[in-house]
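With this grant's support, we have paired protein sequences with backbone structure tokens. One protein thus recorded is set out beneath this paragraph:

_____
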Amino acid sequence: MSSDCPTCGNHSWHCQQCKMDAQESRYGVPADHFDTADEVDDDRDCRPVECTNCGTEYETDGSDACPDCGARRRRYIGPLPGEETDTEPEAVTDGGHTVPEAELVDRAVREAATLIDVGDSERVAIDYVVDEHELEHRRDDILTRVRDRLEQTLAADGGRNAFLTGDAHWCDLCDQPFDSLAELVHHDCDDGQTAIADGGRPHHHATCEDCTWSYSDPDLLEVSDEAEDHARKEMHDVDLQRAVATDGGVAVPTAICYGCTTEVPETDLEQVPSGGTLVEEEVVEHRTRDPTTGERRDTVRRQEYEHTIPKCADCRASGGEQ
């Protein structure tokens, strides 16, 4: 089919422009299927407004420009030109409620302290909250308040809610903070607690308070590294129980002193005469059997000896024993 098109007029195919013209002639253009705002009588109310650019008052439904200066209305939050205000700038949240900047700063301080508690560095935490709440101009103030907050609440809940609090390391045995992990590992912990005797190689335990994760190892540095990695990864609180090395876990046998009824090591007890009481005992000297009947025939000797009782050193000293 020939046409007057200079591109495809003498060919059997149609160019893109001819295809579009054919579709418009068949289906029409979009304007043929929709009504414009000028064609619809929606009874929109025209209200008197004042132009914020030149101050001219005119009536409009919001779509007309100012008849004097041609400026169009737009959404504006703030004082009008020439108007002074003493109110503090406010930020509008996604909930539509205005939040004072002072409250935003308080939120940023709390969030930064929480991030540092779970293991983030001070710089990362401050950068995050400043960007999140758009408080770059209050960065120094937030940093100062976060440091003050961490100094006042170095360890919460007795210091057992997390192994790491800020940049400090906390000992659960003697309840003392340390600036570095090396000081924590090598400090002399004298807390009066019972030492863990496990064959001379006590295991330090790390337990998560928010999940079932736990880890134990004789190396305190290994346990502390695993605890810190878990706290950073899962944002959980980890409790570290530090063990104390012993002499190998060998138990010392004890016994009751007959004189003072006190439990003392057996090595401190000594058998002393009870006061002249004689004890008779049968002693088998020779044991034989009858070869015919199998009856046992023993040679028994009876002997007597003085009865003795165990006493500790204090009881022996008070009783005249040396």
